[in-house]
Amino acid sequence: MIEWGETPEPEEGVAFQDLSPDQQKVVLDFVGLQVLQAQQLKVVDQTGYRWDPGVKVYFNDQKPESERYLETLTEGAPLDYANADIFWGEVAAPAEGTPFAQLSAEQKAAVATSLRYDLLEGDWYYNPDASGDQRLVRELVTGPAPDYSNATLWVGASEPGEEVPWTALDDAQKEAVVRHLGYSEFTGTVYFNPGADAAEQWREAFIEGTGTNADYAFEDIDWGLNAPDPDAAFEDLDDQQKRRVALHLGYDEYRGVVYFKADEPASSRFALSFTEGEDYQNDQVTWSELVAVPAADAAFEDLSLAQKRYVADRKSVV
To answer: Is the Cβ–Cβ distance between 34 and 28 less than 8 Å?
Structure first.
């Protein structure tokens, strides 16, 4: 409903072009306000904040206490990470607020790993219109169409050289080592505290209560406006509530690749990497259950007889 104030209200049904200049201004001001309010509502919905008309602030009970109440919302590109949320491992942590561009190569790699990105080195070529496995490639080949590709034909991994470290292995080789050690990539949610004792650094859950085995008490957690039932066990909490408990205890959700072996002691049940010569030896790993996998750039004439037979069998060549 338009409030005309001191401007005479027009009769019902009068077209906009027939209004007086003052009446048209009132209408335009009203429409502009409606559009602005609609835009603000979209911003509020996108950020998760809500407007509190009583105290005239935006609030979001899911945010940390320092970010829970805002007088205004700032437009800009969304953040990918916060330095405090990254597992830096043996890499020196940067000062708070250091932008990604100013990180060292090791620090950038730590950020990528925590965000579940792979770090690509060297020259890569990208075509968004290519098929899924051909959108990102290392090289472009010219000449006659090949009969097969080493990248897709072989099952397993090529055997690395003697004493080649874990960090120099490709993904297939790391998978072979992980399988050799009886580990597998952990797909659940796990919380990590690098400052805790080795047996307590990784936790899948916490215990609520006041007994000697309890990790936290309900009343000690800052739940914000999303408090669970006081009798709720940790496994019954939602993801945000679980993270509040973890943060209170000095843990945070680990979002990088981590390996898991259920029957290992707590201190080694989770692992981020392995050490050649200590955890495993390259010459004892089964790199392929079938025929030995050649180097990625190996030509057919350089293959062993067994490898050539494998290629012919896969290509149905007699």
So the answer is: no
Q: State phi, psi for 110 to the nearest 5 degrees.
A: -65, -40
Instruction: Name the nearest CA neighbour of 215 among 196, 199, 197, 234.
Output: 234
Q: Identify residue 214 by its one-letter amino acid code.
A: A
CB 244 within 8 A of CB 234: no
Please list, residue by residue across 152-172, b when 16 or more beta carbons sit within 10 angstroms of its beta carbon and e when fewer do: eebebbbbbeeeeebeebeeb
Distance between CA atoms of residues 258 and 86, nearest Å: 14
Token output for 191: 């919380």
Buried b (16+ CB within 10 A) or exposed e, 24-44: eebeeeeeeeeeeeeeeeeee
For 112, the enclosing helix (H) or strand (E) is helix 105-114
**If DSSP codes are grouped into helix, strand and coil, which group holds residue 301?**
helix
Residue pLDDT, tens place only, 165-174: 999 998 899 9
Query: Per-residue pLDDT tens for 232-253?
Result: 999 999 988 998 899 899 988 8
Q: Which of 264, 273, 245, 79 is nearest to 167 (CA)?
A: 273
Regarding pTM above 0.85, the answer is no
Cα–Cα distance, 62 to 59 (Å, whole number): 9
Would you give the DSSP letter of residue 210?
S
Cα three-residue angle 235-239-245, rounded to 5 degrees: 70
**Locus of tokens 């990625």:** 296
- What is the tens place of the pLDDT at every residue in 246-300? 989 998 888 888 999 999 999 999 999 999 999 999 999 999 988 888 888 888 8
> 66 - beta bridge partners?
none
Backbone CA torsion sign across 271, 276, 280, 283: positive
